[in-house]
Amino acid sequence: xxxxxxxxxxxxxxxxxxxxxxxxxxxxxxxxxxxxxxxxxxxxxxxxxxxxxxxxxxxxxxxxxxxxxxxxxxxxxxxxxxxxxxxxxxxxxxxxxxxxxxxxxxxxxxxxxxxxxxxxxxxxxxxxxxxxxxxxxxxxxxxxxxxxxxxxxxxxxxxxxxxxxxxxxxxxxxxxxxxxxxxxxxxxxxxxxxxxxxxxxxxxxxxxxxxxxxxxxxxxxxxxxxxxxxxxxxxxxxxxxxxxxxxxxxxxxxxxxxxxxxxxxxxxx
Length: 269
Ligand code: MN
Prior knowledge:
Layout: E1 5-8, E2 14-17, H1 30-45, E3 54-58, E4 65-69, E5 82-86, H2 104-112, E6 118-122, H3 128-132, E7 154-155, H4 158-161, H5 172-182, E8 187-190, E9 194-199, H6 202-225, H7 233-244, H8 247-267
The structure holds manganese (II) ion.
């Protein structure tokens, strides 16, 4: 089996089994693996992902590979579920398990953006309205979201896939198109679908994904009050520099929270 096969799984949703290729890279660092597992749980706890959505990291021993969970709900991911992928979305060895149909989001962004070390894809409900509105665009309303810049790009899948697609990034061409819409930005909204957020580390990508969602909620609230006074371009730069240095503070709290959740499970009946 040489090509990607997508078919209906037991729950009727598409799953993807793909032939493996190549040999594994050198073992990734413990920290990278642990942080990727924690990121999955943190993103669930902060409502960025639900049963759907995924987070990946570029392999720290081979920049032409990335790590992403097999096809499953993010909150349930353990290190045993992580799969190594080539940038074209082919698994090195998935052990016959199904992989995310939309893994091309990750590979094509890593291919297009050397600075990106982690990618979060989600259907975060708060951001969806800003992907479909013909008038409102997602813009930073507070200092925590200056990384959004003055304009958040929106990916229109119809330009690549026509007007009858399932809106999923199911091949390399669509992934490349999405990466093109992302450009140099940190966040790209996906019309009628969700958003993809990138960072120079797992911690930064998670931080941005959480604060993109919160900004969308606040902006929607502010728009209901009337005319909105957004951050200026200068403020987006200054706040990105100052708040960006505080990413570890959020990460340390969020990681502790998910560890406590997990301890609670272990301690229960
Ligand atoms: Mn999706």
